[in-house]
Amino acid sequence: MSSAVGQLSLRYWWRKFKSATMMGATVAATLLTLVPLFWVLGYLLKQGLSGIDLAFFTSLPRPVGEKGGGMGNAVLGTLELVTLATVMAVPLGVSAGLYLTEPGRNGLMANAVRFAADVLMGVPSIVIGIFVYALVVRPMKTFSALAGAIALATMMAPLVVRTTEEAIKLVPLELRESALALGVPRWKTSLFIVVRTAARGIATGILLALARIAGETAPLLFTAFGNQFWSTSLTRPIAALTVQVYTYAISPFPEWHRQAWAGALVLTGMVLIVELSVHMLTGKKVRAPR
Amino acid sequence: MELKPLEREPALRDPSQPLAGTVRHRALAHRWPRLKVGVPLSEFVFDGITGAAALTVVVLLLAVTTVVIIEAWPAVGRFGLRFLTSTDWDPANEQFGALPFIYGTVVSSLLALAVAAPFGIGVALCLSEMAPFWLSDILGFLVELLAAIPSVVYGLWGIFVLGPWLRDYVEPWLGRYLGFLPLFRGPRVAVSLLSASAILAVMVVPYVSAVCRDVFSAVPASLREAAYALGATRWEMVRMAVLPHSVSGIVGALILGLGRALGETIAVAMVIGNRPAISASLFMPSTTLASAIANEFTEATSDLYVSALIELGMVLILISLLVNVTARLLIYNLTRRRFSS
To answer: Do both A144 and A37 map to the same domain?
Structure first.
């Protein structure tokens, strides 16, 4: 009897031990995963902070060998590209998201759209670059801000579709029914009741998508191309922060490396501020789609 | 009072009339409007606009694929299947073979996934089964931030920090203890297949863990409770209830992560060294499909060169379509059950 109890408790402790070990391993995995995050952020601050001053935002890049200079044109270029892409992708994405959330949309077409959006999110960004190069850059015979913005919009649209759908799904069906019961037409219900209720979710989804595409380099390499001078023209090459950081990082000049770190810090700062504010505002309700 | 059996609908009803139902039923039953008297124009326009936008997304996917295939066609016609098996990449003599690029892409991605898989699953388990809500909220956000950092920043970090660190600390260690394998022999340089895999692993973990979290949260609470009721410890509950229910979802998450790794361009282009040759050692520079396009596209001088680069893109998009479609189907199967119940 006592040995049976002894065995039982031995086995009990063994099981407890095993459970604690395995679950402890998952905690260790989480902590180890976060090491690169702080490693990257720490280095960005260490290397980049010294390069950031007013001149960084207001002046043009200097030629090799000259000290100073900044990435003002690239900051402006990124803002222009992202704004243009948003103007193109948001109406498209939100409309498509609206289409998907009209009651009764579970047929072939709706599922095809969901599927296409998900798969489009997984298409390598460099391939989007090729697509826009063939469709826009070659006919226009020049790299251009427009081409860069179209490439970014192509990446942004499926993100907006999916987040819009998720945000609208959270609107209770009863709300829609009450409006319909009051005799409001279906399209007015969707636009002025449902979308308005979900507006916050949709907006945060757009912000997340914005943050995602602001950090893209690959689709801009041979669409927006980059530019060493101030330019806001739609039909000329335009500088982008990501492209500038890339060019400077693979150059052999230490002064450019310093600028690259500063540019990367600004870029990451912008992205993280958006992510952080979205998280603070909405908690877990809206997440970037995968 | 007398209880009467419920009146049933007559078996023969007028087929032209809709089925009787609740308001909700009718609202749900509203479909693409047939052109008939009584549908106001505004409804028709609304459905038309949103429908066209939705269709655009599908068209966009098809267009990307088609355009890339069309643009690659000159090279496809010129080299045929030899393109996929040749290791000869010689732009000066217009000889193009994709094998080194395919090799580099597949090896770096698989290696990255092998490292990222245990971490991604571990993180998801920790966040969904272990941590209290407030902690998992914070940790989950931090892990998501890993996915938000732009890839060019990872590349910068890879060139100046991770690459040299791997060269100085990790590669000597691997060479000493595993040097009998040809994988871990060779010169020590900062730009290598190993650096690329390491960067990719860091970038893929948040994707794997995010999908795994969704999959784990789709496990019915009753399964967990049943396991606890049988006296299971927490780990036994995970093994009895959570993991068996999530197998296909975890596989889907891993394949999705693989898709991300295959298509990653800039970070890899910055740390892999861009050397189109196959070597057994992970310490040697290599190249991938995506990074080759990024590096050479604007320098390509002849039409055939451009077309060959686009054919690399075609191979890439075909692989990634295959991978993504498989992953999505696996994940849908699992998470749809949650919505239907």
So the answer is: no
